[in-house]
Specification:
about 70 residues; mainly alpha
Amino acid sequence: MSDEILTEVWAIKDAIAAQYQNNLQALFEDIKRGEAELKAKGYSLILPPPNPADKPISALRRTRFGRR
């Protein structure tokens, strides 16, 4: 990755952290509150699989090793 991309990603991360005073618990609670609001509005949330590493063929693996 280029330095510009990393700099932008880190700036976004720092802005989000500052929004919650670097408190991960507050960020997590806000995410959960947002999920609850979406569920209340009738949206269905799709959860990730419990352990995606157990899947023998995944899109990540096909993409990652597709160039060999």
